[in-house]
Design brief:
226 residues, alpha+beta, Dodecin subunit-like, GMP Synthetase, Chain A, domain 3, Ribosomal Protein S8, Chain: A, domain 1, 3 domains, 4-stranded mixed beta sheet, 3-stranded antiparallel beta sheet, 10 strands
Amino acid sequence: MSISVEKTGRNIQEAIQAALDELNLSEEEVVIEVLEEGDEGGILGIGRKEARVLVSIEDEPQIYYGDDEDHTSDPGTEEEVIAVEFVSKVLSGIGVRGNITSYSEEETVYVDVSGKDVGAVIGRHGETLDAIQYLANLVLNRHTDDRKRVVVDISGYRKRREDSLKSLAVRTAEKVIRVGKSYEMEPMNPAERRIIHFALQDFPGVTTFSEGAEPERCVIISPVKE
């Protein structure tokens, strides 16, 4: 069972934003279904067909979950111990309670945090989470001889964000082909830009490239000229 809101707007993004405002959620926390793409044609707006979307959130907690108990799993490697202890100290310092689990895979240490109150750690588009991950990498590699990479996640946020970006990339590419004009996406960090590029690398009719200086660097989706 899920909670759904159906909204219309002059374009898809406006309809999505209206639904997000009503639900008081971000795009990463919902499932978006485009019912009608809309049509911006018509003279002076007459005959224009509005876009229509269905935005849903599952009743089962799919975003942030866990209990209110402070708990850390027993890491299996020295690298995991260092990474988990650092993340635990950061969360404790900002008053966030939750569960921390970890595992290692080749040269990467994965740390995942879950709990009811951990949503604030994500930040806008994962900016706070990325900052914690960056610092965790610095700390780990300062204490180990072998170069390791740390990936910090909050209740599966990174996977949801990746799926959301892929969906946004495809919708935007379809619009670019339809109107025949390039589209500048919002500024993203390098990892998110790579997701957009990868999602559209085999998409027929469009090409992608990045433009601008950090932190305002963004992806441009352009139609392929014959």
